[in-house]
Amino acid sequence: MKAALASFVGVLVLLASCAGIDGGASSELRRGTLILIGGGLDDDAAYVWRRFVELASAYGTPRIVIATAATGPQDEEAVDKAESLSVWSPGIAVDILRRETPTAASVAMIDGATAMFFTGGDQKRITDRYRPEGRSTPEWDAMRRLLDRGGVIAGASAGDAMMGPRMILGGASASALGIPPKDPGDGPVVLGPRTGLGMDFLPHALTDSHWFERDRMGRLVAALVADGLRVGIGVGEDAAVEVDLSSGVVTGLTTSETLLVDATHVVREGRSLKGAVGRLVARGDRVKLDAWRPGPPAATSVDARPVPVVEPGQNRQLASWRLFRHASPPGLAVRRLELEGHAVVVRPAADGDVAFDIIVPN
Prior knowledge:
Structural class: alpha/beta
Shape: globular
CATH topology of the largest domain: Rossmann fold
CATH superfamily of the largest domain: Class I glutamine amidotransferase (GATase) domain
Number of strands: 19
Number of domains: 2
Order of helices and strands: HEHEHEHEHHEHEHEEHEEEEEEEEHHEEE
CATH class of the largest domain: Alpha Beta
Distance between the termini: 67 Å
């Protein structure tokens, strides 16, 4: 009997060690699903809304909690998201969880839900309300119970940014890389990556939103290096990925793409950060994060061609995406994008990945 019990405990320990999303040891098994949305999700993004409702319906009649803690005009955002859901699932039960909702009512609402949707705004409002200074709260415990029973938590913009054990608090790539602004404006800018404790739904990873549109490559890599994390997930606008917490598999949900970033081999040269590896994820693509472990990227002697930027309009917003798409199959080209005080150089790497360097002149 004792031998059988020891064997059973050994299996549990082995499973727990395999469950971490970075392939390292994890103190607990994770269940449930996350949907990371980079912001600007359109009402006609049918596959995202339908998938969210499908997941919310997996273990019973769906009941959605829309959490507006991050948002300034909470009522407007609550109406907007409730209306979006009603298009794809008429009559679906929706509860609104505001910052001011008392704890007992909040817990009852979450415990009765099959899914939650965190709206955009300021991610620190979310952690200040539900996980201040990394402390457990009754609401946070209820959210963990939601995931443990196979539920889903989705978040857009700030609701995406807060998902990991650490989160990016704000700032542009230039300031994260230590580049002083040409015009300080209203006052001094904090230099270096600004990070803090996140909601810790997604283990061992750092998430970012509006990623291509706001040229956030430098700030994500700088934050990964500063916080000692391997995996970053940069989600673009109107883009979304699904994360199965039990398997660590990331699945693309949209035509708009997301970039997975591995910072294992990043080296610092002055203020430059070189040797990051990325993989674009579009709808239907699946990547198991603990198995995706790129080797050190090889250097290239090919001169990088500039990615042209045209103002104004969508061409400017999509320049960062084109930078990475050029280096991915079938293009396999080396490209360079000039940004505020720095440049990003992207080149093909092994197995369909791309390697990229963040270059800051001395």
